[in-house]
Structure formats: structure tokens, C-alpha cells
Design a protein that fits this description.
Elements lengths: L1 H10 L4 E3 L22 E4 L9 E6 L2 E6 L3 E10 L3 E9 L8 E9 L7 E8 L3 E8 L2 E10 L12 E9 L4 E6 L2 E7 H4 L4 E7 L4 E11 L1
């Protein structure tokens, strides 16, 4: 279980701290949002932010997110209870004021409650990726921002497309891939098997197109 594995994280002296406030020089925009696509739910990072200040809509075979506050989005039907892979292809369409991140979350539980829990795997326009776990209002740092050549950097117009995959089909570890290249792995003994809700995470003040969200159970 992911929650139980946090004891191991503490013993390994991995940092846990309240979620940082946004940079005052880059205040969160308020976007005219509205109802989410049928079946979808969402939650902002901060209780003071409103989900209606971000826009998450169906677009073609995928979705489009204009933020607004940082938030996660999920459909309750996207839940895993055994070995799985989860993938999404996301395109940052515009340059933010500074690198902001987007990607997948998994192992989600109690997402609408104070004791929410999920792990997330995200990339940003400067070619770096990160893996963290959130428990309530705390964030446990699992893999810090790390540059990897597999992550496509934003071009001069701020555009970049990246495919992110969480591979939880192996008995020993959960593996993280960007554009089908493994960039990291964490042992199951540390992270847990990854079971739970799977969804999307988009940080603040981004314009991101989600080409797909695919979950394959093994």
C-alpha cells in the first residue's frame, strides 16, 4: 500500500512539506471555466482556489486544459487494482512565465477528502521530470526535478509534446517513461503497487492539450 510505504520514505529521510505557495510574480490566472466533461471530477491544489477558475473540456478525441489554478482531473471509472500501464500524450501549446508542469497521477484515493493521496509524474518545458506523492496537504519528494534527454523541451513558441507512461506491470518496481524511454524507476517496497485512481495533473497558468489517456490492465 502506498500510504504504508510512506514510513519507508520517512526512514530514507525524504522531505515532506506543505505544498508551496505560487510565486508572487506569477499570480494564478482566473479562467472562465464551467462544467467538466461528463463523468469527470477535479480538485485544485489549494482550498482557496476554485475549480471554476480553470477550464477542462473535451476536445476531439482528447481534452484541453486552460489553467487557472493547479489541479488534478479524474474519471472514477479510471481505477486500477492490479498490474497496469497508464499513458497520456500532452502538448503544452503556449509558453508560461516560467517552467510549469503537466502529466499523470496514479494510486489516487480519497481525492475529494482531506486525506487525499496520490502519486504524480510530470514534465515541464525545460526538459525536466519529477515524481512526488501527495498526502493531504503534504508533498513527499520522491524524485526531484531531473533533466533527461527523453523529455522534449518547449520550442521558441513555448510548444512541446510529450508522452508520459507509468508502467506498474513489474513485480519489483514502478517505471516511468517519457516518449517510450525509461527515465526512472522506484521500487514497489518504497512506492507501493500503484493501485487506485488514475488521472491528469496540470499546474497553474498553462494551456495544455491532452491527446489521450490510456489505461491498460495486465
Amino acid at each position: 500500500m502506498l500510504r504504508r510505504s510512506l514510513t519507508t520514505l520517512s526512514l530514507l529521510a525524504l522531505a515532506a512539506a506543505p505544498l508551496a505557495a505560487q510565486d508572487a510574480s506569477d499570480p494564478t490566472h482566473k479562467i472562465a471555466g464551467g462544467a467538466l466533461p461528463a463523468g469527470w471530477m477535479g480538485r485544485t491544489d489549494h482550498a482557496t482556489d476554485k475549480l471554476t477558475d480553470a477550464k477542462f473540456v473535451a476536445m476531439g478525441p482528447g481534452y484541453h486544459v486552460t489553467s487557472g489554478p493547479a489541479a488534478i482531473y479524474w474519471n472514477p471509472k479510471n481505477v486500477t487494482s492490479g498490474p497496469f500501464t497508464a499513458s497520456t500524450t500532452m502538448t503544452q501549446t503556449k509558453a508560461p512565465m516560467h517552467p510549469e508542469a503537466y502529466g499523470l497521477f496514479f494510486a489516487g484515493s480519497n481525492l475529494d477528502k482531506p486525506d487525499q493521496s496520490y502519486a504524480y509524474f510530470i514534465v515541464r518545458g525545460d526538459g525536466k521530470f519529477l515524481v512526488n506523492h501527495r498526502a493531504g496537504e503534504q508533498v513527499h519528494k520522491l524524485i526531484p526535478w531531473t533533466e533527461n534527454a527523453a523529455v522534449v523541451k518547449a520550442d521558441a513558441n513555448g510548444k512541446a509534446t510529450n508522452k508520459l507512461t507509468v508502467d506498474a506491470t513489474k513485480a519489483d518496481s514502478i517505471r516511468f517513461l517519457v516518449n517510450d524511454k525509461q527515465v526512472a524507476a522506484l521500487p514497489v517496497s518504497q512506492l507501493g503497487a500503484g493501485h487506485g485512481l488514475v488521472g491528469l495533473r496540470v499546474n497553474h497558468n498553462l494551456d495544455v492539450h491532452v491527446g489521450d489517456l490510456t489505461i491498460a490492465k495486465k
